[in-house]
Write a sequence for this structure.
């Protein structure tokens, strides 16, 4: 997914993560994606730039696309990250420079690992469902994975379990005694929670993880904070249990991981470690080097925006949350 918004670079120095299990509500803001789609960008924000290695969160829909093209994102590059795509409604066709052409539908998971460089496009098929609703997330890759080979995986079947009145689908990592088949490179978890009953419910958490809870549909309350669709509640470190109350049918996305300790620079579609590394990635994309050609997509590739006139500067991880 192309970061069409021109945000400042974000460099995250080691050891700047939160230490307490406080919480902060991140409402997000609207960003145009391609020609026809608007997403709510929930990470990065000034208050919080990461949750574990999750460094980018876009929530889109539900949108009525019955008489519209739906998602149209032409070929664009990535470095130093994994994209994780999860749909609640609709269908998107993924194409990449490794030759993969893969439709993704609700309940399935796409994980693309850029390594040192990959290009892809994301489009709704010509004939597509009337609604589109989902998330795309980025995971920052640590050394040495970020310099490794690119890869792509599609998971049509994921672990599912019941915890009281919660139906949990495990996207990545470990939770509730289950393990996702998706390959990640830092301690990480991502899970969809669907609420089946009105009673308060709880899930076990790892105190060494920091967590965020994204409301995708319905209404929920956690830590005394009401969550409306499209809002992300940052939960911090030190929690052993997630307790929430929600309307039946509510769908939430739980994200967590150990704080990412490596320096990090994010600009456009590149995740790197320095200004010079990002400059080189941009030059390679503009010159047609490194990233390859997206399979079965004749559209012109997206041009990289102009770099800032000053060097990409270090920024902290985000406001520490003190309970």
């Amino acid at each position: 997914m192309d970061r069409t918004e021109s945000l400042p670079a974000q460099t995250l120095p080691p050891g700047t993560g939160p230490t307490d299990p406080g919480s902060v509500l991140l409402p997000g803001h609207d960003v145009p994606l391609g020609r026809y789609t608007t997403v709510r960008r929930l990470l990065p924000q000034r208050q919080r730039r990461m949750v574990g290695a999750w460094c980018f969160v876009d929530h889109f829909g539900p949108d009525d696309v019955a008489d519209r093209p739906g998602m149209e994102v032409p070929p664009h590059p990535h470095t130093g990250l994994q994209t994780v795509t999860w749909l609640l409604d609709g269908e998107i066709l993924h194409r990449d420079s490794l030759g993969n052409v893969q439709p993704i539908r609700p309940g399935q998971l796409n994980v693309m690992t850029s390594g040192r460089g990959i290009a892809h496009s994301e489009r709704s098929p010509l004939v597509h469902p009337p609604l589109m609703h989902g998330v795309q997330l980025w995971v920052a890759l640590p050394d040495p994975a970020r310099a490794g080979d690119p890869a792509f995986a599609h998971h049509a079947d994921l672990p599912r379990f019941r915890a009281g009145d919660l139906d949990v689908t495990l996207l990545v990592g470990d939770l509730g005694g289950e393990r996702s088949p998706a390959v990640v490179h830092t301690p990480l978890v991502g899970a969809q929670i669907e609420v089946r009953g009105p009673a308060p419910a709880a899930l076990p958490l790892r105190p060494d993880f920091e967590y965020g809870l994204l409301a995708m549909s319905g209404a929920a309350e956690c830590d005394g904070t009401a969550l409306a669709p499209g809002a992300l509640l940052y939960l911090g470190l030190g929690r052993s249990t997630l307790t929430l109350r929600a309307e039946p049918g509510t769908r939430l996305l739980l994200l967590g991981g150990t704080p990412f300790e490596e320096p990090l620079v994010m600009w456009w579609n590149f995740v790197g470690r320095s200004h010079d590394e990002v400059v080189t990635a941009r030059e390679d994309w503009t010159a047609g080097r490194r990233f390859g050609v997206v399979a079965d997509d004749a559209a012109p590739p997206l041009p990289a925006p102009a770099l800032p006139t000053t060097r990409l500067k270090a920024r902290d991880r985000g406001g520490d949350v003190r309970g």
